[in-house]
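Example 332.
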Amino acid sequence: MKIVVTGGAGFIGSNFVRYLYRERPSWHIAVYDKLTYAGDKRNLEGLDGDRVHLIEADICDEQKIDRAVADCDMVVHFAAESHNDNSLHSPWPFVETNLVGTFRILEAVRKHNKRLHHVSTDEVYGDLALDDPAKFTPDTPYNPSSPYSSTKAGSDLLVRAWVRSFGIQATISNCSNNYGPYQHVEKFIPRQITEILDGRRPKLYGSGENVRDWIHTEDHSSGVLAIVEHGRSGETYLIGANGEKSNKEVVELILELMGKDPKDYECVNDRPGHDLRYAIDTTTLHDELGWSPIYTDFRRGLSKTIDWYRQNESWWRLQKAETEAKYQEIGR
Ligand code: NAD
Ligand code: DAU
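Predicted structure in complex with nicotinamide-adenine-dinucleotide:
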């Protein structure tokens, strides 16, 4: 099996590449990545170059993506602009990469008759009230809120249309919030850990009541692999780990695990249009493919993640100042 992993030098993509490398030793992996501010070659350090190679290119580049797709058996598509706050400040790269880039991949997959798995997000469904007993299912209507989530929703719809109109072989997964090693410090959990390591207070948007459904990135990887190997073409699978927590609860737990006063955080300006709550119903993935998460103890997963950031300061140090300067500009 020769697989192209777009966005394989980013957070979830590189964790997936490492997971595949370990779990499927006979597979060859081509990481196709533009290496934006969110991609880092170091995320692939230590992997044997005979089994994993990097194609440094843009998914919007028609010729380059065509060549990479022609030369593989299947594509797993993680590449995206992924941060909501950035999308509010500068939406164009989201439209270009998430919509045009996915279009380019679909056309290449159609031309060369290759299988595609498209990685998406639970944010396409909008948000839920805090007391709503419902969770997102594959039948929940799309209702995205931000430039990021609307371009991801658009990319999902493109995939569905290419399946129906052109008969391409494709699956989609919509996953909840990931945490774990190699996550950029712009994101919530690594930002708070590194703020504390730098002697500053964690920053909660608004009152911190917003709820996210946390999943360890390793569980996301096993879910994607299950779909790649056993998913039905044309299906959408939701991936989550029953990990609902308010942002306030998460910040308090990080502070406690790092030996600080759990109340020692500050509330900053809220994100415009901030989604209130996400929650995933994983029945299809569980019943149809027999998948379940391993990292069911959030405290333990978070503690391991904190250890990783403590031990890998050289990995995040360069991103940190630039990221905080951006947050300073927008008052968060
Ligand atoms: P990330 O921002 O950490 O990584 C994105 C990667 O894509 C980077 O390596 C970047 O260099 C690459 N990339 C960006 N634009 C590109 C382009 N035009 N051409 C080629 N490569 C490009 O993102 P992430 O958090 O790892 O998310 C990966 C995927 O998973 C995204 O599709 C995202 O929507 C989805 N997702 C993320 C989460 C989450 O919690 N982070 C949850 C569900 C789904
Ligand atoms: O649900 C899946 C999505 O999860 C993915 O599709 C996105 O790519 C990923 O970035 C993530 O989106 P969120 O917007 O939920 O993640 P973020 O880490 O930016 O923020 C998580 C929550 O924490 C959100 O409610 C905003 C809040 N927050 C964030 C930051 C950076 C804070 O309270 N303080 C912060 O400093």
